[in-house]
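S1.2 Input.
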Amino acid sequence: MAREEQAERMIPLVGGLYRTHGVVTSIHGRRLIGLSSIDLIKAHKFARQAGAQAMSMDASTAVLEALAELKPGPASLDIARLHQAHRERGEGASLVDFLRGELADILDSRTETAEPRDVVLYGFGRIGRLVARLLIAHAGNGAGLRLRAIVVRKGSEDDLAKRASLLRRDSVHGPFAGTLTIDEEANSILANGTLIQVIYSNDPATVDYTEYGIDDAIVVDNTGRWRDREGLEQHLRSTGVSRVLLTAPGKGDIKNIVYGINHDQITDADTVLSAASCTTNAITPVLAAIDEAYGIRRGHVETVHSYTNDQNLIDNFHTGARRGRSAALNMVITETGAAKAVSKALPDLAGKLTGSAIRVPTPDVSLAILNLSLEKAADREELNSYLRAVSLHSKLRQQVDYIESQEVVSTDFVGSHRAGIVDGLATIVDDDNAVVYVWYDNEFGYSCQVLRVIEEMAGTHPTVMPPRENVTLESMAALGV
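S1.3 Output.
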């Protein structure tokens, strides 16, 4: 009861920092925004389970109060790591004074007001609706990304009501967190104060977005209908569009971006980009971490993947091999380009990976099995400790999570913000051969990666503090992992 009471005092501090200053707070990667008192307690408990240094509710409250006093600019702040830094390097300084020096860069930028950037969702399927939820939830104080419109083909006379209903209710991810109001006359949806114009069009090149007050917009194409530059550049012929992001693997010379791996390759000249696939986003960060520490000679990636909309519910004609058979009744062997796609984001692994996939009768959350031949012999405990450290401290901590539990199953990872979650108890190591199991929410976790790429394109991704570290096998002891 005492912890609940303390968590209840933390909630307005977390909310005030976000709404007023654009500060996203977390504890070892667990976002605190919008959490209940019980969820805040669970976020503190997770740190102990993950092998990180435990943080008390008192310490969290003290950091939050200090941040509220300092009024920093927009940033993503891990309060657990800021608290740990104060304990290790504070040298007698008060928490406020220490944080004033530690966060000097974002304190200097707090007077800068970020211009909001218009975002349009072209297509409103599984990924489109989840990205919409994320954009609405990240609206914060109005700066940053601003969802302005969705573009769809009109399916029925009550199309608007049906689109809003699908946004409001989701069989996998639960109800929309907030309120939705539709305006039939204006053809719009008001979602938690975000006004979304619904535009009906069959041609991506003919929409005049400026008619709706939308300009310099990033169009996120969720249809998968066009995957090459020629097809996607149709969007750029519409008035009010400046850039396009595809939520599927891009073909030809289109850059496939896995946030955390190669997002720094995005330039202002890139008008068309791809956020790669859900599987590529799940496995590339883990592979990058392992390759950096041990080296990967070769490997095979087997994905056990939930069924998707491109399969048939019951047996019927399908242009793809085996995908015509009932997705709800069968395991279906199919192809995956994820292993080859890794090399687009991580060229060091070009030609070293093969891959295949099995679609299974679950609606969400998939599992990638990485069977790797390493250049350097490994030890199971050492490899797991290293991957745990990567999930807590490294530049990939937004992408890689780690768990050790004998009881977890796929549904436990629905709603994960990370691209992939290493299942430490499943790890197998035999000298220079390793098998690593990576869970991933192929819908929500991927959508979070898509959002990060949009933020990078718009220049609105918050500064991450403390800065990400370069985790090595040698540095784990110093990190306390």
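S1.4 Remarks. The chain has three domains: 2-108, 117-248, 279-442+469-479.
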